[in-house]
Amino acid sequence: MSRILLRTRIKFCGMTRAGDVRLAGELGVDAVGFIFAAGSPRRVEPEEARAMRNALAPLVNAVAVFRNNDGDSVREVVRQVRPSLLQFHGEEDDAFCRSFGIPYIKAVPMGGPMALDATGLRLKFPSASGFLFDSHGGDAQPGSGSAFDWKRIPPGLDLPFFVAGGLDPDNVFNAALGTLPWGVDTCSGIESAPGIKDGDRMRRFVQEVRRADCTDLPERNSGD
């Protein structure tokens, strides 16, 4: 079966510099993420994200990333940054996530035991536009650069899902073919230091995703 007509979406997260945002758009990335979670080395203030948003190319989405932020801080980000999508990484429930009137995706921690299957996720977050499977959970924090076993992604999910956690130019080809996600999300995998993106790694990451998009499905098992 050919995948020539399928396209894996790409999100670069943890943006801290307007030049990196601009390059992401030039490379054809679909979305960039601005992190507002306390304790993250890539955390930015709403004013900083608003300025970087001006560097966005047309048709590139701004995603606001939170982890257990209070409602007032989320509303302030929404007011200043005008994100097209919200991403929640903490213990937020569906009522909180949907209360801001913007589509949201919920991060699912894969660093510990999997608590919910596909049906359970849909029941717990009925308003979610999609899910992001990340390697946080247990002792692992978001943005740690570690991967999880992609085979643990629950089958039968009828919403778009993203794969994150430890993705870089060297493994994203296998991740894209091995999971067939709606999109892939990377942060530390394209950096030279926390928050400082590396242009060459950004380019290679996009190239490897596009190579996977043009690869027939049988090659998933070829060991490439």
From TrEMBL:
Record's keyword terms, sorted: Amino-acid biosynthesis, Aromatic amino acid biosynthesis, Isomerase, Tryptophan biosynthesis
Domain N-(5'phosphoribosyl) anthranilate isomerase (PRAI): from-to ranges: 11-207
Enzyme kind, highest EC tier: isomerase
Superkingdom of origin: Bacteria
Keyword ATP-binding tagged: no
EC number, UniProt record: 5.3.1.24
Family: Belongs to the TrpF family.
Protein name: N-(5'-phosphoribosyl)anthranilate isomerase
